[in-house]
Amino acid sequence: MNTHLETALDLAAAGVPVLPLRERKLPFGNCPACKGNACGGRPNMKQAGPCACPGVCHAWAAATTDPKVIHSGIWRRAWVQAGAVAYHPGGAWLTVLDLDNAAAIAWARENLPATQTVSTTRGEHWIYLGPMPSANGVRPGVDIKSTMSYARWLGSGTGAMTVLPDVVRALGVKEPVTARPMPQAVTVAIPSGGVECPHRKPAYLDRGIAMAEQRITEASSAVHSTVYRTFLAVLSAHGRCGCLTDTHIARLFTAAQAKGETVRHCTDAWTNARTRLGM
Predict the structure, then answer these.
(1) Is residue 56 a contact partner of residue 43, using CB atoms and an 8 Å limit?
(2) Is 31 helix (H, G, I), strand (E, B) or coil?
(3) pLDDT band at 148 (very low <50, low <70, confident <90, very high)
(4) In sequence order, which residues have a C-beta less than 8 Å from that of residue 59 and are 6 or more positions away?
(5) Geometric angle at alpha carbon 271, from 88 and 56, rounded to 5°
(6) Can you tell me the distance from the alpha carbon of 197 to that of 30, in angstroms, rounded to the nearest whole number?
(7) Is this structure's pTM higher than 0.70?
(8) Do 226 and 265 form a contact (C-beta atoms < 8 A)?
(9) Cβ neighbours of 265 (radius 10 Å)
(10) Mean pLDDT over each residue of the chain, to the nearest integer
(11) In the chain, where do the E strands start and end?
(12) Rounded CA gap, 84 and 40, in Å?
């Protein structure tokens, strides 16, 4: 059996979503429109150009634990050509702190709790238990890979894994960004004390997220503005009662990325919406 395929199946069996990588750490296209990266690779954020897919078909969004998918036709051919195995840390409930050089490693050893460590070509991956939003360049030589991101599988490493600490979460928090002015005031619904939050009922929240996804998907122009206003509407309705989960946010980001938005655009729009609402 192909070594990369065997590794992928072992990881999938352990609950780690996997995907094949080409040379230079780039994902494969997983549909005919993206074969050979013909779509321009927009979802993997490595090349410019719109994706011709109706949705995000590759990069972190393609990661799976389903052995039938991993064994399927286009994936089986990809494993033969693969240069490495990648995984979706957030999907495995993990966060990878990618330390790219000796200075970044030295900083981490002085300031962060020790955890499972994996050697990379130029530095180390520090792996914590728990997901968080991904972010690049949080410090010189330091990237965070968790939700909506992928990392190369470089082995299980050494040391015991530590629960994701607040000091690492804080690295991904940006300074507040000034929000674009809204044409009308936004009313924030705040649940009154002692009353059960209606948003915790799955049907109510799921319907709201589905409507938000549809609004973004159907945008034919002014996509940036539509994404921002949609994020604002979701946060105004569900942002103060603890209903939103990483899964709900990932669905919104995925819909926005399918329209050509970058992860940075999504993150900025989300931050602007939170700032606008005083969160």
Answers:
(1) yes
(2) coil
(3) confident
(4) 19, 27, 43, 44, 45, 150
(5) 35
(6) 41
(7) no
(8) no
(9) 18
(10) 79
(11) 18-21, 84-87, 94-99, 116-119, 124-129, 135-139, 142-145, 151-152, 162-163
(12) 21
